[in-house]
Every structure is written in C-alpha cells, then in structure tokens.
Amino acid sequence: MPATSRTRRAAVEICVDDVEGALAASAVGADRVELCAALGEGGVTPSAGTLAALAQRAPALAVTVLVRPRGGDFVHSPVELEVVCADVAAARRIVPVAGVAVGPLNPRGRVDRAALDAVVRAAGSAPVTFHRAFDTVADQPAALEDLVEAGVTRVLTSGGAATAHEGTAALRALVEQAAGRIEVMAGGGVRAENVAELVGATGVPAVHLRAARTVRSLGHRSPTAVSYDDGTRTLTSTEEVAAVVAALTAPTA
C-alpha cells in the first residue's frame, strides 16, 4: 500500500505576544510566528528580552518581528524612523533567522518609499513583510507595485476590507497582480471554519491570524478597580492553531 504524505495548501503564520505563545503555536504546526507586544494597541515592537528568550529556546523557529514604535497611525517622524531602523537591526542581531514586519506610510495614504527603502536596507538579507497598514492605503494596486520595487518579501492584507473573507475578490486580484513577485498573505478574521474556502477562493500562499483565548488572570485581584487589569489574560489557543493547520493540510498519495 503506498505511503500517504500530507501537504499544506498555504503557510500558517500566528500572531503572538509572548514566548510561550510562539512555542505553543510552533508545537502544533504553525509555519511561522509574528512576534509583537501590546496587541491591545494593534501591536508594537517586542522587547529585546522577549526576542532573546525566544531565540534561546527556539533558535530555528521562523519568526517575523513586528517593528512599530507606537500605536496609532503609520506616518513616522524622522526620529521614529531612526528608532524603526535601529530596532530592525537589533532584531536581526538577537534573532539571526528573523524577518521583520513594518508599514511606513506618508500623510497622503501612500507607501513612504524613502522610509521603506531605509528599513529594507537596515534589514539586509532578512525577509520584510509590509503589515496591515497596507489596508489603509488609498490605492492598493499602486501600493503593491511600490512594495515590489522596494524589495519587500510579502504583504499582509485583508484586501482592504474588514475581514479577509469580505475582501476575497480584492485578495484574488492582488495575488494575480503580484504574479509571484511578492507573497500576498491573507489576514483579518481568519478562522478554522473559513480558512480553506478563503485559500481556495483567493490563491493566497499564506494566512495570518491571532488564535486567541481568554483566561482568568492568576494575579491578585485588588478591590480597587484599575483600567489596566480586568482580571483576564489573552493567550494563544493551540486548539485554534491546530484546527487551522488541519483545515489546510490534505493527504496525498
């Protein structure tokens, strides 16, 4: 009887904000993690200590490091761009296998080519992802060409819609426009129950999601209410990661 192997229809990237989440996602089949901090702010650059702890425990893990100096918009001041480039270089020193995710825009809603070129130079040979700032640009087809010209490896996008499912047509058009010159990775509302249909309808070679579960905090609950602690924590759901991986993994003879 011939042996049966299993193939992945698309790569799975999981957004995490701690070392434990990265290790857990990898253990159940994630192809790559995006390491962030402060996901309540939409994600900012993780600390050097977090990067070092992950590199020590999983030196070969494929990781993309979010490099974003603050929450809010994606228009960087000269000082912020200096910080971004320094953080990119630091991430590469601490995690040699890492890629980086950035998203500099100008005030007109276009890719800030000068800033992006500086970041790509700082990244050297590391893969560069343009994150979902892409979903706020004024003209996605034009922005995609900017990314290709700048040497960006992949773009994370919902197709400009609230979710990737709603942006199916735009994602398919971006994949066709990219024509293998840049990887289009679908993100936004990706779940186990819709991921196979999404990949089939768009042809994206990769998907991105925050597989989250909320648990009660182990910390002492003060009788005084504080805005920064509601008594819960958000962790990576290995069940959701495994379900997404399973939905995209098919047996082949």
From TrEMBL:
One MF term in the entry's GO annotations: copper ion binding
Keywords: Cytoplasm
Top-level taxon of origin: Bacteria
Gene3D superfamilies the record matches: Copper homeostasis (CutC) domain
Primary localization class, coarse: cytoplasm
GO cellular component, one term: cytoplasm
Keyword hit for Transmembrane: no
Subcellular location: Cytoplasm
SUPFAM superfamilies in the cross-refs: CutC-like
The keyword Cytoplasm is assigned to this record: yes
Family (UniProt): Belongs to the CutC family.
Entry protein name: PF03932 family protein CutC
Species name: Klenkia taihuensis
